Sequence to fold (286 residues):
Amino acid sequence: MSELLTIYPHFLAAFMIGLMGSAHCMAMCGGVMSALSFSIPETQVAQRVRILLAYNFGRIASYTLIGALAGGIGYQLAAAGGVSVLRVIAGLLLVAMGLYLADWWRGLAYLEKAGGLLWKRLQPLSRSLMPVKNMRSALLLGAVWGWLPCGLVYTAVAYALAQADGTYAAGIMLAFGLGTLPAVLTGGLMAERTKALLQRKGFRLSMALIIIVFGLWTLAAALQHAGMDHSGMDHSGMDHSQMNHSTIDPSAIDHSTMDHSNHQMPAEAAPTEPVPAENSLQVHQH
Fold:
C-alpha cells in the first residue's frame, strides 16, 4: 500500500503531461486521426468510433511497451548510481517541453529528428495499412504510430526512465497515453473544433507554464536528492546515555525460541557455588 501511495503521484503527473500536451499530440496525430475518420462514412458512426478506439489502443499499447523497456534500462543505470542523473534529465526535458509548447524554444525538434532514424523503417509499414477499413488494421496502425518521433513522448519516456523500474515505468507510459486519449479521440470525431481549441494561444500558454513548473519541481527534487550525502555523518558525538530504557517491557520478550544450549560462559565469569547455611554457622561458632 505504501509503494502505491509513493508511485501514485507519478502516475497522475504522467497523465497530466499527456493531457496538457494534447496540443502537440493533435499536431502529430491529428492528420492520421482525420484520415481514419474520413475513411468511414459519416452514417456509420459506431464503426468510426470502433476504428478510432482500436487505433488509440494500439498507440497506447506501444507507449506501455516503450515504458517497460525504458524502465529496464533505468534500473540498470540506477544500479550504477545514476538515478539522480535520470531525474535531472527528466526535469530538463519537462522544461524543454513546456518551452516547446509555448513556442519559446524549439530545441525538442532536434530530438524528434534523431528519432526519425527509426521512423524511416516503420513509416512504410504504416502506409501499407492505409486506408483503414477494419479494427485489425486500425490496431496495427496505432501500434506502429506509437513509435512516431515526438518530443512529448520522449519527455514522458524520460520521466518513466527515471522510475528505474520496468513495471512502474510501463504504468507511467500507460497513464501518459490515457492522458493524450481525450484530445486525440475527440480530434478524430470533431477534428476542426478540437484543433481550434488546442491552438488557442491562451490555452497552449497555460498548459506550457504548468509543465514548466512541474519540470522545475522535478529538477529541484532531483538536485536535492543528489546533494544528500550521508557518508560524511559523524556518529562519534552521539550520546546514548540519555536513552530512556524505563519504557522497555522485558515481559514482552519471547524466550521460548531462544537456544541456550550452545551458550558457554567464560571461565572467569562462572558463578561461585554458594556456601551452605549450616557450614557458615559452624564457622562462626568456632
